[in-house]
């Protein structure tokens, strides 16, 4: 079965940057559409961005122009570059197949403080 391990989260000031990484295994990575999600306690998990096997990346409106999804098929990794971070970006960030609701990893906490 597939597995995801997220890393790179931390505490950052408003306006700062972070780069998250997602290491995947257990499935054919290079032909999979993968996505980043985030969740705040008490709220539903929301989609942040995804990237297709061809490398086309799409970001949600809430993060468009600030977050960029990329992938390295040679390393089975996907990244999320986040700039101009805001307090509302504080959440636990997860990666998974686009549309999946299973096999979630531990996530990585991102906290943005003013």
Task: Please supply descriptive tags for the structure shown above.
globular; 6-stranded mixed beta sheet; mainly beta; single chain; 114 residues; 0% helix; 4-stranded antiparallel beta sheet
Topology:
Blueprint: E1 3-7, E2 10-13, E3 18-25, E4 34-39, E5 46-51, E6 57-59, E7 67-72, E8 77-82, E9 91-97, E10 108-113
Describe the protein.
This protein is mainly beta. Helices cover 0% and strands 50% of the residues. The protein has no helices and 10 strands. The protein has strands spanning 3-7, 10-13, 18-25, 34-39, 46-51, 57-59, 67-72, 77-82, 91-97, 108-113. It has a 6-stranded mixed sheet, with no helix packed on it. Strands 1-3-8-7 form a 4-stranded antiparallel sheet, with no helix packed on it. The chain is globular, with a radius of gyration of 13 Å. It starts with a strand and ends with a strand. The model has no long low-confidence stretch (mean pLDDT 96).
């Amino acid at each position: 079965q597939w597995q995801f391990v997220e890393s790179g989260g931390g505490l950052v000031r408003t306006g700062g940057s972070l780069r998250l990484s997602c290491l995947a295994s257990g499935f054919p990575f290079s032909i999979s559409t993968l996505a980043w999600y985030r969740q705040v306690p008490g709220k539903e998990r929301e989609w942040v961005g995804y990237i297709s096997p061809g490398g086309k990346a799409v970001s949600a409106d809430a993060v468009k122009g600030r977050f960029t999804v990329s992938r390295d098929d040679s390393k089975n990794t996907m990244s999320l570059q986040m700039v101009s971070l805001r307090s509302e970006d504080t959440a636990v960030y997860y990666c998974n197949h686009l549309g999946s609701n299973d096999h979630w990893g531990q996530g990585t906490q991102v906290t943005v403080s003013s």
